[in-house]
Write a structure and sequence with these properties.
Layout (H helix, E strand, L loop, with lengths): L8 E4 L2 E6 L6 E6 L8 E4 H4 L17
Antiparallel strand pairs: 1-2, 2-3, 3-4
Length: 65
């Protein structure tokens, strides 16, 4: 399982999230654990990979164990 696999648990923006299915291969959809469907956000993979975006809280770092 990778960080883009639906159902994966990841850390992003200092919060734990569940990866949701996305029809767009360049978009990672996230719902916060304990959050509602209104809190779903999308992370554009090409933009997230840019060096300016790789500063701590905006980086999808890893799966939670």
């Amino acid at each position: 399982m990778t960080i883009t696999t639906p159902g994966a648990l990841v850390r992003y923006r200092e919060r734990e999230w569940v990866v949701l299915p996305s029809d767009d291969p360049n978009l990672i959809l996230l719902r916060p654990i304990g959050g509602s469907a209104r809190e779903v956000c999308g992370v554009v993979k090409p933009l997230a990979a840019m060096p300016a975006c790789l500063h701590g809280r905006f980086l999808i770092t890893s799966e939670l164990q």
